[in-house]
Amino acid sequence: MIFETHAHYDDEVFNEDRGQLLAGLPEKGIGRVINVGASIETTRTTLALAEAYDYIYAAVGVHPSDIDGLNEETYSWLKAQTAHPKTVAVGEIGLDYYWHKEEHEHEIQKKMFLAQMEIAREEKLPFMVHSRDAAKDTLDLVKDCMKGGMYGGIIHCFSYGKEIAGEYLDMGLYLGIGGVVTFKNAKKLKEVARMNAEGKDVISLGIGSPDMPPSEQTIETLCNNAHDPNGHGYQPYVGIPELRKGFADWYKRWYGVELNPATEIQPLIGSKEGILHVTLAFVNPGEQVLVPNPGYPTYTSLSKILGAEVVNYNLKEEDGWMPDFDELEKMDLSRVKLMWTNYPNMPTGANATPELYKRLVEFARRKNIVIVNDNPYSFILNDKPISILSVPGAKECCIEFNSMSKSHNMPGWRIGMLASNAEFVQWILKVKSNIDSGMFRAMQLAAAKALEADSTWYEGNNVNYRNRRHLAGEIMKTLGCTYDEKQVGMFLWGKIPASCADVEELTEKVLQEARVFITPGFIFGSNGARYIRISLCCKDAKLAEALERIKSIMK
Prior knowledge:
This protein is an alpha/beta fold. It has helices at residues 18-23, 40-52, 72-80, 103-122, 135-147, 162-170, 186-197, 216-226, 241-255, 271-282, 297-305, 325-330, 354-367, 404-407, 422-432, 441-450, 455-478, 503-514, 540-553, and strands spanning 2-7, 30-36, 56-60, 87-96, 127-132, 153-156, 174-175, 203-205, 265-268, 288-293, 309-314, 336-342, 370-374, 398-403, 416-419, 482-483, 491-495, 516-520, 531-535. Helix 8 (216-226) packs antiparallel against helix 16 (441-450), helix 9 runs parallel beside helix 16 (441-450) and helix 10 (271-282) packs across helix 15.
């Protein structure tokens, strides 16, 4: 029986099919669910779910982001709900300093956190703690509370280091490693969804999810093979031969790289899966990984979840968003096992050069570090795709990810791959084979067909992206931002004007007044603090409308 210990099935996202979903949980093996309150209102809806379903139980509490709703009256009501026969915990409570940076707000959060921990103590209930960018304060307060006698608890969505993890475990507490710990922008995306639900018609320029379809041949191949009665069983972990050969031919044709399809290619369920598998295969808890700043947040979050220590290396505009090798040489790299690179770069759009790849390979061999190059954007607004594996000897010390999400308009299919030497691929396969199975056969055959696309098909995509890039550039100029015309990929990265005190000040103004969402660069790391990112995965008409809206507020 599966026990789902932290759910929010009362969320509005489930409004359309909540009943059907919940009714089907038992037959899926989910025998018990704890639905967790995060505000006074969601505590009410949580209790209502618990009353309606025998297998759903309730945690009652107020999240640090919603403590404005706590006063003497609501606090008394909340405490009274612990007597409900299906209340089994106090939560989700805690500290969140990411969105609430002022000291006085921190003090209010601490007060409300301790008050709810006291409820847990008095009512002899376990607690569920949320903590974000508040590692020391959370640990100190939990330690103090535990001295007075508590009844167990869990640190939800734990994303700190092994030392702090050890302290919580020594107190007899549990660590939750599920949930959205990757997307630092998740709160804003929820706000956008809420505003749209209210009829405010927010145009989102945040997510890089291609809005164009795959090729017609790809879709036809999927449909035709989906009818095969013998094609619905489990598939091999290594992927079907047709797909591996498709990737090998693709690498030869476009990157000039020879790969053995039987031993040097591993299909993946997207790059995130690859990040997980590679980290598990190459890094032990306590060892280090090099992660770019700015960079894809998943490199950091999955490393931390798996017990690795993250060491950031700087990418800066003055260096063309390339690694500073002089700086790297001065660092203690004795415990570093992996170095994550991502070119063409996300979020900055900086393109790789053969010289960069040669230097990375030389650095990796000399320092005995494995370079993992994430390469999903090389066909977007890029005249000459290149691969780190084109460097002689790169296979010995490098792994390259690639993905069909961006290059072939297939983000929802979750099909990607990695390539390296046969030994590395086997190590990764050993991890993968214990975690998941192969993808649906019809999808793999369709993906192999997609890989046969010629230059005309890629250029058709880029015609659209080129026009969108022009509109995104006009938005940048309207906002007073500057950007590098040589950027490639499906985003435009720009620096905010010196007159703007803070990037969030600008993005909030655009969101609230123009109803356009633009990603603030700080979610990718501190070196993105004065930058914004605009996605090109938006129809031309919507981008044009976003431009006009922004023009209207910048007069």
